[in-house]
Each structure stands twice: as structure tokens, then as C-alpha cells.
Amino acid sequence: MDIGIVGLPNVGKSTLFNALTQAGAMVANYPFCTIEPQIGVVPVPDNRLRQLGELLKPEKLTPTTIQFIDIAGLVKGASKGEGLGNQFLGHIREVDAVLHVVRFFGNSNVVHVNGQVDPLADLGVISTELALADLDTVEKRMEKTARQIKTGKPEYKEEMAELEGLVKFLSAGKKPPHSPLVAELQLLSSKPCIYVANLDEDQIMAPEKVNGYQEFVAYAKENGAEVVPISADLEMGLVELSEDEREEYWDSMGLTYESGLERLIAKSYQLLDLVTFYTVKGPETRAWTIKKGTKAPEAAGKIHSDMEAGFIKAEVVTFGALNQVKSFAAAKDKGDLRIEGRDYVVQDGDVILFRFKAPNN
Question: Is the pTM of this model over 0.85?
């Protein structure tokens, strides 16, 4: 899963990226200190995997991962190339989802590219630039489709009608509905999006009381986006503490500790309809991420294409049942271990042994 971190310059994108990935991206008080996208691969925190490791004692415990990409700041006019905008917009096209970082924090030592902190105005700038870039993409496709209509094939007339509808959506500032054509065009406005409200440390304790926050949440809801309040500076400071020290800090605030990484990943999984299953055969116990609704052979194919091609059956037990009885043998004796075929839809938390026929050498 690739997640792009976007926003105006100097909103805390690289600080957040560093807190999430501990990758050490450059942070500076001027626009475009990040030019090339910074990439960090992060193991997904997973208590179930940890418990499976304690239970089964494998030689190797492998979490699933998420890749964060820190994309340079966008500015007004990015869709026309301002601030190297075309290059940066191209980076966004490649990601599965977008974390749109919006500045709420003050800090007069960090200049705001537009002169003042105004979260809704900042959102408007980025949303407009993404829509304008998408309009350009759609209009270029319309030119191509118009030529193809001359062949007399009806599918091109249908495509033109859909393209005209997309122009209306984008011109009105609305997120285009998902369709195969929208996916093919890689429209930026169609990307699943989480708005990250980057707050001061003292604001994070009660974000709902921050000036403009409620309007920000309402805007996100209207546009089908989730909101996660975070203080990137605080998260960066907490990275340097031990787990016990972090918990002690949150206890002193009367709050339960949950890192920004954990909250963002949880929202990302919800947004992208992802689930996690586990494999335990041999010396390695491993977590895998798949789309909700994936059938057993395709899930096996995540591990190796031969396993999908030669799929025979899946031996499945839920994490909860296995954790309760402590072994596959006990799960089988109790009737918790099920045999599933090709039509089985893998569920979140399934622990699976895939049986397959290896290809002839």
C-alpha cells in the first residue's frame, strides 16, 4: 500500500513523514526543501501478529508494510507547472491513497506560504489544483475519444458521455464517482483521501475546540474524506522516547496512548477496504494485506503465483479461536479449523494454511 503525503509547503509534511517512518527527510523553513519524493517503508503495528509470535514461537515474525511517500509542497498554479507542480502532481498519480496535511499550528518561526494560517483556504488551493489537473487529463482524453467516435463504434459515444459528466463533476469541485474509466485516467481527485489536521501540541488534547476545526471536519465529510488530528511536532518528539515513556506521557494527560502511525494506518485500512490475514507454515509467521472480498486462491497468490495456480484448499481458523486454544491441533480437535475451497472469501484475522499443487518442473 502506497500512501502519498501532500499539502502546501511548510505545513509539516516532512515532519509528519519523519515521525511516521523515522527516515530523516529534510525539514526546513522555506518552500520546496523536498524536491524528489522521500520514501519510507513502515511495518504495520499489529497486536495479533505479536500474540501469534508469542503463541507459536516462529523463527521469524514478519509484519505487513505500508509505504509513505513525502511529495513536495504544491502551490497555487501547480496544475500549470508553478513550483514544479506538474512533476509533483505526477507523483500523486502513482499512490493508492493521499494524506492531505493541513496546517492548524501557529509558530511564527515557520512562514506560511500564503501569509496566514487558514485551513479551509489551504484545502481549497490543493483541491482546486488537483481538479484543474484532472480537467486537463479529461479534456485530452475527450480529444482522443472524439476522433474514435468517427469509427462508428457505440462504446466511444458512451465514453464521451461519461467524460462530459466528469467535466461537470470536476468543474463543480466534486469528487468524481469511481468507475473503470476514472481508474484508467488515474484522476487525482478520485484518490481516497485522509485530511490530517496538523495541530500545536496544546491543541491536540481538544481539537474540537480549535478555531475552524469543526468547519474543517464538515468540509471533509462533504467531500468523502476522513479527518485525523495529529501534532507532527509532538509525534516527532515521542518517537525518541521508549514505549513506557510514551505511555507515561499520555497517562499524565489522562489519555490512552495511540500513535499517529497507528491511527493513520487504521483509517487507511478502512478507507481502502483492506483486511489482514496470517500464514504460519514453516519457520515464518507472517501478516498479509488484501482487499476485502478477496477469495482464497487470490489471497494465496499474494504469497506466490504458484500457490494461486495450484490452489487445492485452505485450512482456516480465526485468530480469536487459535489464540484461545493455543494450537492448530487443538483447534482441529475442537472443530474450529475449517476446510475452505476456491469460493471462500478471506476474512480479517484469518490464520490460514494453504494447500496447493506445485507446478511440474
Answer: no
